[in-house]
């Protein structure tokens, strides 16, 4: 084995070790990448490479999409849009078995159209939906599982912060990824809702129907949906504007952030200086952390390029005499295992620069592949032992909730995710027809 390849293998093992010991993702990428470059070249080259990476990671216009949509999500979380979505859909679904869980599923999907963070969605709905479900006598595992898994919709439904990171790591179009995530996201929310309804119908003790729900009249259901008008306007303007070609993803982020701010001021929450300052501070912290991770990941991927590991791996897989579906299955299995051990951002920052060219070289559609990867991200977000959505929900739902309580409720929803994943693999046009329609 040549010294370059050996250095790359040692670096990957060292990186995984640092991540398992809890070292910050960006620090681990930068430290291992710098020491590896120093070993292969010299200190001058290592410093020059990290400096050039830092400049290119900030100076590229594409990256301005990220802070704008992060700001939009922070304003949305502070403005009470999640409460609006949840209460409106619950009123509309009253008397339906599992109505509160169904409201959580579709409410999370609606909130995801203006908030690109799955962790924020799970945390917000943990504070809103979980107390209501328990007050109505819902089973704890059923309630927590529905909230944790529904929170992952913000990873798929635009404006998804993870899709922006995918666009950066794979150099694909943010707009195409946003369009590609709409149908799979809505499809997953619908499959979740059907699962909740069937489970609650078969076992009413999971989700009792209260007298308060039975008293809701049909006209009240229709009237309740009117509470979604602000979310509908924002989602239509941002996503519809990109689809119609009126503005780019960056312009959509700016319009969405401004619209969310104006609605937040009109509704009242953002008039309080503390709430407004908190939203700005949160968006600044998230943006700074994400840029730090992006710089580290890009630097580490450039170091790996020096070792020629990605190139050699590509040659090996392309010459491997097996069906391309076998290679895709191995990649998905690798992501599933890594996602159970590491933070999803680390998994994709480490693997996408290596695996993405291989998959595209095998003839798979790059946009479709990114959506499949995002589906794996959703599953990993609630899978033990490192499911971040589960931890976020356990921290926000109350002192009586532990993360193992959340894990007990997620398994039926993971089965739903796997069913949707199989459908997306079997029928790729579910993913690709909207972006193809938009750009053709």
UniProtKB/TrEMBL annotation:
The keyword Manganese does not apply. It is a multi-pass membrane protein. Residues 12-430 form the TRAP C4-dicarboxylate transport system permease DctM subunit domain. The keyword Phosphoprotein does not apply. Pfam families: DctM. Coiled coil: none annotated. Keywords: Cell inner membrane, Cell membrane, Membrane, Transmembrane, Transmembrane helix, Transport. It is found in: Cell inner membrane. The chain crosses the membrane at residues 12-41, 62-82, 142-169, 175-198, 224-246, 282-305, 325-343, 350-374, 410-434. Signal peptide: none annotated. One of its GO terms (molecular function) is transmembrane transporter activity. InterPro entries: DctM, TRAP_DctM. GO terms for cellular component: plasma membrane. Part of the tripartite ATP-independent periplasmic (TRAP) transport system. This is Tripartite ATP-independent transporter DctM subunit.
């Amino acid at each position: 084995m040549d010294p370059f390849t050996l250095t790359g293998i040692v670096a990957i093992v060292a990186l995984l070790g640092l991540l398992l010991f809890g070292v910050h993702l960006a620090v681990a990428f930068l430290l291992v990448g710098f020491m590896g470059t120093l070993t292969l070249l010299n200190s001058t080259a290592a410093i020059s490479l990290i400096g050039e990476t830092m400049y290119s990671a900030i100076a590229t216009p594409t990256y301005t999409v990220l802070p704008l949509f992060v700001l939009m999500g922070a304003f949305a979380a502070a403005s009470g849009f999640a409460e609006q979505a949840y209460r409106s859909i619950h009123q509309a679904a009253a008397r339906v078995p599992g109505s509160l869980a169904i409201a959580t599923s579709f409410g999370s999907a609606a909130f995801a159209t203006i908030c690109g963070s799955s962790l924020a969605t799970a945390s917000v709905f943990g504070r809103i939906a979980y107390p209501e479900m328990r007050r109505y006598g819902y089973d704890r595992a059923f309630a927590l599982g529905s909230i944790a898994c529904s929170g992952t919709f913000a990873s798929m439904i635009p404006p998804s912060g993870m899709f922006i990171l995918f666009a950066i790591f794979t150099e694909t179009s943010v707009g195409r990824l946003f369009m590609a995530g709409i149908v799979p996201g809505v499809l997953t929310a619908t499959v979740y809702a059907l699962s909740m309804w069937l489970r609650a119908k078969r076992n009413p003790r999971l989700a009792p129907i209260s007298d308060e729900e039975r008293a809701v009249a049909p006209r009240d259901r229709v009237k309740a949906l009117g509470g979604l008008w602000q979310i509908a306007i924002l989602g239509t303007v941002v996503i519809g504007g990109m689809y119609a070609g009126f503005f780019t993803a960056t312009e959509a982020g700016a319009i969405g952030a401004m619209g969310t701010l104006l609605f937040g001021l009109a509704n009242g929450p953002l008039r309080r200086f503390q709430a407004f300052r908190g939203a700005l501070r949160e968006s600044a912290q998230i943006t700074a952390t994400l840029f730090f991770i992006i710089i580290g990941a890009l630097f580490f991927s450039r170091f790996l390029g020096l070792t020629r590991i990605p190139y050699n791996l590509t040659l090996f897989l392309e010459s491997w005499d097996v069906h391309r579906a076998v290679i895709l299955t191995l990649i998905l299995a690798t992501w599933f295992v890594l996602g159970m051990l590491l933070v999803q951002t680390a998994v994709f920052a480490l693997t996408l620069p290596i695996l993405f060219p291989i998959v595209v070289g095998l003839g798979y559609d790059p946009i479709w592949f990114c959506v499949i990867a995002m589906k794996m991200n959703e599953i990993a977000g609630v899978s033990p032992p490192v499911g971040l959505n589960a931890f976020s929900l356990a921290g926000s739902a109350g002192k009586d909730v532990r993360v193992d309580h959340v894990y007990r409720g997620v398994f039926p929803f993971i089965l739903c995710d796997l069913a949707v994943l199989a459908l997306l693999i079997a029928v790729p046009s579910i993913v690709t027809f909207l972006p193809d329609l938009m750009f053709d």
